[in-house]
Design brief:
Structural class: alpha/beta
Largest sheet: 8 strands, mixed
Number of helices: 22
Radius of gyration: 32 Å
Distance between the termini: 46 Å
CATH architecture of the largest domain: 3-Layer(aba) Sandwich
Number of strands: 25
Number of domains: 4
Amino acid sequence: MDRESNTLTAPRPDHRTGWPAEGPLPFAATAVEVAGDPEDGPHLLYRAARRLCEAAGPDAVLTHAGGELTARLEPGLHAAMYVSTEMRRDGAGSPLLRLNLRLSGHGRTPSPASLEHWAEIWHRQALSAHEVVRVAGELPLMSAAVERLRPGRPLEGFAVLVTGHFLTDLVHLVGCLAELGAPLDAMTVLRKDYAYQWRHRVHGHLLEQGVRVVDAGDPAAVHEHTERARRRGLRCLALDDGGYVAPALLDRARAGEGAPAGAGRWAGVVEQTMSGIYKLQGREAELPFPVFSVAQSRLKGRIESYWIAEKAVTTALDLLPAVKIEGQPALVVGYGNVGAHIAALLTQRRMRVAVHDADILQLIDAHESGYVTDRDLPALLERHQPLLVFGVTGRTSMSTREFRSLARPAYLASVSSRDIEFDLPALEALADGDPVIRPCSRTHVLPGGVDVTVLAGGRPVNFHETDSISNLHSDLVYAGMLTGACAVATRPAPPGLDRSWADAVLEESGLLQDYYDRYGPRAACRPTAPRPWAGPRGFPLRAAPPRTPPRRRPGRDERRRPADAPPYGKRHPCGRVAVRTAGIGSPYSSLTRGRSAAVVVPSAPVVIVVVPAVAVAVPVVVPAAAVAAVGDRVGGRCRGGRARRAERGAAGQEDSDRGGREEPLHSQCLHGFRTLLVLRRCRRGAVSSSFRQQHGISAFTR
């Protein structure tokens, strides 16, 4: 479900055609994989075929023959379309439908650009219901924020403009904006053109929802959105990523081409990147609306920065050729929130790290953290001679003077939005000859024979053909942006850029408390899904249904119970009582250390009894028919062992002698094979050999 096939060219050696041997292959094929029910396959295929025909024009006629849909897309280019279902041996997850497209030329050779064009349209397949539900499940903070903000529909009457990376979390963000009242048909999304795996499918999903999609580099996009909102009598609000909106509005106002006023005036902008904040520096007084700076908030700086740094370092090292990095010099330009984490991660990989920052306070911080530093970047490049350079400033950090200071082959990795970190035109002008272009890099040869390789073409390495960070990580910042958008729409704020406003709104919204409750220390004891047990037959363990705990009289041995153990009768979140067996972990594992345990598997014909042998838990399979007898008879001798304990267990009586140190299994109750029980201090003599033979219980292993 998480894969999207790229355009492929498939040869057929046994098939002869009239095409020249050195030309294209007989046909080009591509497929898009969708998680959905098999009965939805024909409908999805027809919709995808209609999308191709609509792009081809009125001359494209869709026909059905031999289980395939066929159409002529352009002169000499025919398309055959069919759907298949992936056979999964494990049976896990939703069925995977593969929508296949085969393009073949008749009479002329189709160009690669034409094949790519039709493949991109084919891949604009909207997300299925299964996929939308899965994505929403990965973004719980956004969903919870919508529930808190939904009353009053705060975004009703606003035409929202979103600048976003075309990842699956953008689909849920747009859905949350609609839940908060923003009309989808008045919404515009500015597309940041990075090579993400799901970019075409996200594009198709937004189009199907009625959202207008425009390239982020279109200079007229913001003005057109403003005019559309004005015609409908709506106010404008933006969730920006990279400073595409507010600077464009200020530039138009400065040029005398109009100001954001009237019915379509702008209520404000929510900005989540430092690159966008830098574009407003020195222009704060010109802003006619408030800017909600998630980028400068403590929420983003203290929590998200590590995720970005870890992704950037991992991707950059993957893009390097086979070189040994341990002991090699590295340079981080920009010691902000992300840059500091990158420097620490490179140090953990045993590289010798130097740091440069234009801010003297940041430079002092880096120096006192043990990094090599210098106020002059060219001097630092000459002295340190880095193999790997990370640019994390959010503006242009290296140009001609810095490139001339490189004395050894170096690799440049940008972690800023777009391709502004390194002055690529200056690098090309300085280089000798044309660059050597590879799929993941571009190498320039400087005077003196120094090779400078720009990774990912100068664009952010953390965005290179992969998700920047996972949905579970982007969830927090997007939830903060939703909170900021509702604050801009409903709370009066003075025009300008006030970073303290964003901190105050975010910290009083309940978002950070929600994050801590979900991922803090209590979350470790709260499973999100049943965990499989690696025992016989691999039956999954499930939490027991709530019930009233049995009443019992405290015993003397309670004073000897571990301090971290729950009180008697309290249900552990992971089951009825904590248990320590192979494949099962518990913070209260000391409760069962050296003792016996029974695991009742729901809807299964067996009960699994686990008897520890020293430190190893040994599973024993018990037929279901013997469960009642096990409950009546097991309880056994303990610390001097009284044989009448079995009779007390059968009668369901409470254990009163010896201070109530033993609780019969029967008193815990099986509750329809859904209760997880612990038999404390049960020894081999608790179940006689005749009882095991009578009920078919396998021998207990000691």
